[in-house]
Amino acid sequence: MEHTEFNNDLLQFLNASPTPWHAVNTMKERLEASGFERLDERDEWALEQGKSYYAIRNGSSIIAFRTGKKGAENSGIRMVGAHTDSPCLKVKPNPEVRRKGYFQLGVEVYGGVLLNPWFDRDLSLAGRVTVLDEHGKVQDVLIDFKKPVAIIPSLAIHLDREANSNRSVNAQTDLPPLLMQASETETFSDLLKEQIANESGLKARKVLGYELSFYDAQDAALVGLREDFLASARLDNLLSCYIGLQSLLDTSGDEAALLVCNDHEEVGSVSAEGAQGPFLGEVLERWCGAGKGRAIARSMMISADNAHGVHPNFIDKHDENHGPILNQGPVIKVNHNQRYATNSRSAALYRHISDELGLPHQTFVVRSDMGCGSTIGPLTAANLGVTTLDIGVPQFAMHSIRELIGVQDGFTLYQVLKEFMQREEML
C-alpha cells in the first residue's frame, strides 16, 4: 500500500464509521473479505495454527488475530490496541424537546467533548437501534441518516455581547440540536422506524431502545494549500483502528498477531467490552489455554492513540523539548506516573524497527505543571501483565468535532506496525 492509496482508503473508512457500531461493522467486512473467520463467544472454539479469526462483543468492540505458524506460547503475540469510541453528543432516552413549534432532541455529553465547535455545524445522526419487528422478534439494526438532519444554532452576538470573550456552554440547555418544525403528533420513535424502513426494509413494530450519536455531516478531507493535512471527525481514535487493521491485514501471517479495538475508552473503559473488562483476556485464554502465561511473557502490546501536536498558536502548552510536529513521525508517549505504559525497552523496540525502516519518530512528555491524559495502554498492561508501548499520530484539535493530522504520519505508523506484527523477534 502506497501513501496516497493509504490516505484515500482512510478517508473512506472514516466516512463509513460515524459510530463505534459502524466502525466495527466496517472492520468486520474488511476482515471477512481477507479470509478472517468469525468466532461466536457462545460457541466452542477450535482454533488452528496459520488461521485468521475475529470476535465481536456488543457490536462495538472487536478483536482480530492471526494464530501464526509456531504457536503463541512459543513465539509470543504481537498486539496492537486502539479504541472505537470518540467524544460526542448522544441522544437521551426520552429526548423530545418542543418549544415554539421547533422539534429538538435532548443530548448527553459523552466523554471530554470540546463543545464550542459543535455549534453551527451540519449534523447527522447514526447508531444502533433495538426494535421489535413485525414478526415479534427483537433485533438490533444500524442506522445512519448520512445527511444533515440537525444543527445547534449559536445565539447571535447582538444578544450575547460577551460571546467572544467569556463564552461558556451549558450542556443541558445550550446543546439540544434543532431537527425541524413539527406538529405535536410527530415522535422520535416514528422518525426512527421510518429511517429503519428506508435503510433496511425492516418494518419495526416498536422501538425498544437505542444508542444514537450526532456527528459532523461533513466528509473527511485532505486540506491545506498543498494538502499537507487530513481533517475529519473521530480521528481520535478511528485513525489508530484503521492503521492497526491495515497492518494486520497486510502481514504475512507467519507470526501470531492481534488487533483489539475497545469501546468506552473516552469514559474510562469500565465495561464488558472496554479495556478494563475481560474481553481481551478471555479471547487469549480460549486461544492459548494453559499456555496463556507463557504467551504473554513473550508478547508485546502497542497501544495506538493519537498524541497532541504542538500548536503554533499555543507553543507554551508543551514542554519545550517534547513538542511533536505534524508530518514528522509518530509519537512515543512517555509518562513516569504510568498514565502511559511505555518503558525504555518497549520504546527501544519501536525506535529500532523505525530506524531500520528509515522512518521518523518523536517523543511526547506532558509539561510537568499540567495533567496527563491516558489510554488503554496502562489498563491492558495491568490486566494482562504484558510489556506495552504507548504511541500515536500527532494531531491538532483533539476531541473537537473536526480534528486534524498530517498526511504522512498515519502511513509511517502503518509501516512500522506492519513490520512489528510480522517480526520474528520482539523483546
From TrEMBL:
GO terms for cellular component: cytoplasm. GO terms for biological process: proteolysis. Its EC number is 3.4.11.-. InterPro entries: Peptidase_M18, Peptidase_M18_dom2. SUPFAM superfamilies: Aminopeptidase/glucanase lid domain (SSF101821), Zn-dependent exopeptidases (SSF53187). It is an enzyme of class 3 (hydrolase). GO terms for molecular function: aminopeptidase activity; metallopeptidase activity; zinc ion binding. Its cofactor is Zn(2+). Keywords: Aminopeptidase, Hydrolase, Metal-binding, Metalloprotease, Protease, Zinc. NCBIfam families: PRK02813.1. PANTHER family: ASPARTYL AMINOPEPTIDASE. Belongs to the peptidase M18 family. This is M18 family aminopeptidase. It comes from Marinobacter litoralis. The lineage of its organism: Bacteria, Pseudomonadati, Pseudomonadota, Gammaproteobacteria, Pseudomonadales. The gene is apeB.
